[in-house]
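Can anyone check this?
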Amino acid sequence: MSLQLLTLISIVVFFTTGAVSGTEVVKAVGEEVSFGPDKLPASVSSITWKHIKGAETVKAIEWEDGVTDTPNPRFSGITTLDTATGQITIKNLKIEHSGVYTIDISSKEQAQRFTLTVMGEWMLIIH
């Protein structure tokens, strides 16, 4: 079985089983995506966006004490955070950005989850 067919089957299974509750977004390589919390509390001491892919969880971007940092090189130079709204924006998407995104506000994980699937052009045609 070809790698392309296996990838397609994996994506179909992922979407049909509803692997993660929350917002699901499909984008093409090179596009841009933004996610944001439903609302941001009046007093916020920190915001951390995490990326979960398989068993790995990394910080995509974080803000605390007025300082914004992108600790993981996968997100460096392409990820921004609007501290007024809590919205994360990732530009120039790559397939490696696919996964689940969660947000911690003032060190408390929020229930809201965002699932991003980044596809190459050939996969979008099939999809």
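Reply from J.R.: I decoded it. The domain at 3-126 is CATH 2.60.40.10 (Immunoglobulin-like).
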